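ok so dumb question maybe but i'm new to this and my supervisor (M.) told me to 'just get the structure for Chitin-binding type-2 domain-containing protein' and walked off. so i did the thing. is this what she meant?? sequence i used:
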Amino acid sequence: MRFRIVFIAIVLTLPASIALACSQHSQQTQSCSAGTVWDSDMQKCTKQVSG
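this is what came out, is it supposed to look like this??
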């Protein structure tokens, strides 16, 4: 009986912990709009400066 409770607790907790770990991984946008580029330091699209 105790084994079943521990097993069920692990089964219910594991997917949530995996999802949390994946969401903390680097988050990037698929693409930035025209004239902007992805800035990995600021974690957002910024205006492209050329020159």
